[in-house]
Amino acid sequence: MTARTNLRLRGRFDPPGDKSIGHRLAFLAAISRGRSRLEAFPPGRDCASTLELIRALGVEVSEEGSRVTVVGRGLGGLRAPLSDLDAGNSGSTARMATGLLAGQSFDSRIVGDSSLSRRPFDRVVNPLIEMGGVFETTDGRLPLRVLGGHPLHGISYTLPVPSAQVKTAVLFAGLFASGRTIVRESTLSRTHTEIGLAGFGIPVVVTKGSVSIDGGRDPIGNEFRIPGDFSSAAFFVGGAACFPGSDLVVHGVGLNPTRTGFLRALRAMDADVEWETAPSPAGEPMGTIRVRGRELHGFTLDPSEIPSLIDEIPILAVVAAFAKGTTRLEGLGELRVKESDRLHAIQQGLIALGAYIEPLEDGLVIHGHPGELRPARLRSYGDHRMVMAWAIASLGVAGECEIDHLDQVKISYPGFWETLNRLLC
Ligand code: S3P
């Protein structure tokens, strides 16, 4: 990728539908009674994997542009798949499906690509075993066999790691279980499942630190407009914040506070960023972000914010390299088990760019010196979010950077390169 310095990001854009919300609504629609319409369904490969997976379970799904219609089969209506269920690169697809499949009368087997097959599944299987589910895993990883015909019962489960995917899998299993299922977490992870369940008519009790549902009640099909993906928007927001002269407006973007820790981090770095949430009587908060570029300053990340910006750490680290002074990012062990070992990928890439960093086992310290980064070969390890973070980094470097696996943006943001070219000036 060729880069010039002093590039700015200017203009307006609407990010594609939120991937995280798309998965949840598609799964819930599949087990609902009646028809659901999902507007602005995310265009990336990951959510396509979820649609393929529910189709393989006998669910009728039709797509018309970005509108997806799902004819739900109710809690008892999924059919045994004829072959393996392929989650591709998508951890959300595989983990949420595990929760859904645990309470079925039939067997199924979930597989994934080489990246997904390296990621841990014991974290999702363990609570489901407590609920009565039976599984065969490969060393706690995929392929994962889910054995049917084992009735589930509700449990009270405290998440050992803050993971919205695990919370979701347990709550999905709870829909099929007898009695009440309670998930407790010490740091609140994204609340899209709680909001989605309520949108399908399931009574959800949320207290500080816990969420509960009662099993045995069919979700009811409904219509939803999926907000723009904050995590996709974040690459451009981060770039605009640190390149002076930038001025960017993001429309229709999801602003659920459990996702927007990156905006709060940018504020802590003195960024000129504002956001406004449009009134949303029910459902997911969404609105507008405006960001203008100026000199940023290093900061220390508050660990309690990590779940709310977990997918934004790659772009946050890039922004920190363009800020003046020291940024401390710690408590990031979870990054090692994402689509790639993102901590390693970030550390290696920043070193290649000539940034002054101290790599830590669970994080890194970045001593930002804007203007001193040099062209480099940046490895993405096939990870969509690393490709996009390096694309933004390369804009601030004099000379040419080379990034591999450019095409991986299709996992979450197929229009990324087009939008980047349009906003660059
Ligand atoms: C997600 C939760 C996070 C996040 C992932 C999507 C979700 O993963 O990194 O991209 O949609 O629930 P964990 O649950 O592993 O933290």
Average pLDDT works out at: 97
- Point out poorly predicted stretches: none
Distance between the termini: 16 Å
**Helix fraction bin:** 25-40%
Gyration radius, to the nearest Å?
21 Å
Order of strands, main sheet, comes to 1-14-16-15
How would a textbook summarize the main sheet? 4 strands, mixed
* Overall body shape: globular
Oligomerization state: single chain
Tell me the structural class.
alpha/beta
Written account of the structure:
The chain has 425 residues and is of the alpha/beta class. The chain has twelve helices and 21 strands. Strands 1-14-16-15 form a four-stranded mixed sheet, with helices on one face. A hairpin with a 2-residue loop joins β3 and β4. The two termini are 16 Å apart. The model has no long low-confidence stretch (mean pLDDT 97). Shikimate-3-phosphate (S3P) is lined by residues 20, 92, 163-165, 168, 190, 310-311, 334.
Task: Produce a short descriptive summary.
The two termini are 16 Å apart.
Descriptive terms for the model:
single chain, 425 residues, four-stranded mixed beta sheet, globular, alpha/beta, binds shikimate-3-phosphate, 12 helices, 21 strands
